[in-house]
Amino acid sequence: MFPHLSQSYLFFADKLEKANYYLELSIEHASEPLDSRLISHLATAPINDGGQWDMARNLLERYGVVPQAVFPESYSSSNSGGLNSILTSRLREMALQLRDLTNGVGVMRARALKEEFIAEIWKAMSTAIGVPPRPDEKFVWDYKDKDGKVKSWEGTPREFYKAFTSKQYPVSLDRVLI
């Protein structure tokens, strides 16, 4: 028995990680001129959909995965253009504030503000997509086995990944993307 996995769960985690990464890069490169090629490139699309194998592997290892029944699709996860547009605009505003703060007061205060910004992004995505289970939060999944008997599984998203998907779809470090 192999469950339908929640794409929305990894979609949520991916957006959150990309937002964090973009804001961190804004702090790290605060001294770079705003019209530099690097800053232009970073601001172009800080949270595009999709990614590479190593990004997917890291998401699975860090967040785990859940069945689609536990965290189903939503309009915004299936049609991400509007959400991406809103988040991109807000992230650019946040990046400018972090640059100014880093150059004025310092990195420590900027990183503290970044955490507040990540909480704001999480809240916006939770409103649009739903509140996903935390990687260490237990959930209950009821399903029917191959004989039609109702069964129940309880555990965290990380435990679910290890129990159900890591054996069929291992994402070990010995894989290379060419």
Automatic annotation (TrEMBL):
Taxonomic superkingdom: Eukaryota
The gene coding this protein: LAP3
Q: A Pfam family matched by this chain, by name?
A: Peptidase_C1_2
Q: Which UniProt keywords apply?
A: Hydrolase, Protease, Thiol protease
Name under which the protein is recorded: Bleomycin hydrolase
What InterPro entries does its record include?
Papain-like_cys_pep_sf, Peptidase_C1B
What do the Gene Ontology cellular component annotations say?
cytoplasm
Q: What Enzyme Commission number(s) does the record list for this chain?
A: 3.4.22.40
SUPFAM superfamilies the UniProt entry points to: Cysteine proteinases
